[in-house]
């Protein structure tokens, strides 16, 4: 036996009223265990005989300890290869509009008033049918609507969805969709319609702090008009719809953060509480990074700073019943869509890419980064287009990931970021100790509502 290279541990938890205890986390199983510190020291020293059999069995089950001859990196990447292509949901990202009303400074897209035509929609459908007829057994179709601003291509969304719903009905497949939208046009009535008739279940809307901060970043392209008040009103109205109240659809507010607006995150979270929508929405915190070489990340917080602040924001969310994504990552078998041969991104012109940040940008929009164009014969497609071979890059050791204990839950972060020579390690790498403790207390508090989380 040996202790797995794919484990993480907290420091000793004396200051959290857990004297001589540590939490261990297996990134191979996504499970965490509270253990005595001396037991962890014995594990590190390979001194297994002093540990009782029952605990050894638990540690083995959770892959905290593994066979001493196991090449764990080989096991992990082999599992990834086997599982990646066995996913039985056909997932596509469609960017049906090249247009957007906003001129956010960190966006690298070139916006034009172009929308997916009837002919292009026909090509979307043909391509999706090509995959459905490929012989692989699918249970459902999942579409992510992305832009430009997808709602500026509403007609194309409705038209495409109607055709996909018919295909799903004929083939006994389930259908689901999500949308990344700026929220400017998402009135309550439209939310209700999109959720109930067009099966868009999850909406991601960005607010970069309160109006004072948001309006300096997310203003209209034409007149630099502010947008916070309108977007916020739309979010509130959406939460009052029947579809929202019946939990058929929901909104996550994404907050893009750097040095210039991190101090506006707390006031925004407090505003959610003041306006009574804290119990209805979810939030996600995202560092601003370069996009297509536009230097948007020049004011980024350091990974360590961001990770530290994220813990405080999460604590506030927990205390105020604002939903956030799971604290601890799960085992994943691919970093993102770029690694999946049957996951593609279509733009309004029929161009096909591997990554949703490629369309409409100067750096990645060109032919050299495309899989192809839906108007052309499929034999012309480059099935090894930019980023598709990400799993080979991981295996080659060109990034840090081959040696990293986070790989099974991280997958290597954002392949595009590494492609641009920027390490893509997620916040979890920098605040996992705090997240393990917070997760422990959240699970304890589910058993005992009196527990108070303190740092
Ligand atoms: S490569 Fe990065 S930006 Fe592109 S889809 Fe993957 S995670 Fe997103
Ligand atoms: S991206 Fe960073 S955290 Fe993720 S596996 Fe690679 S080195 Fe580790």
UniProtKB/TrEMBL annotation:
Cofactor: [4Fe-4S] cluster
Matches recorded under InterPro entries: 4Fe4S-binding_SPASM_dom, Aldolase_TIM, rSAM, rSAM_sf
Keyword S-adenosyl-L-methionine found: yes
Keywords tagged on the record: 4Fe-4S, Iron, Iron-sulfur, Metal-binding, S-adenosyl-L-methionine
Cited Gene3D superfamilies: Aldolase class I (3.20.20.70)
Classification via Pfam families: Radical_SAM
Source organism, top-level taxon: Bacteria
Ranges for domain Radical SAM core: 95-234
PANTHER family cross-referenced by the UniProt entry: ARYLSULFATASE REGULATORY PROTEIN (PTHR43787:SF3), FEMO COFACTOR BIOSYNTHESIS PROTEIN NIFB-RELATED (PTHR43787)
Protein name per Swiss-Prot or TrEMBL: SPASM domain-containing protein
Species annotation: Chryseobacterium tagetis
Taxonomy of the source species: Bacteria, Pseudomonadati, Bacteroidota, Flavobacteriia, Flavobacteriales
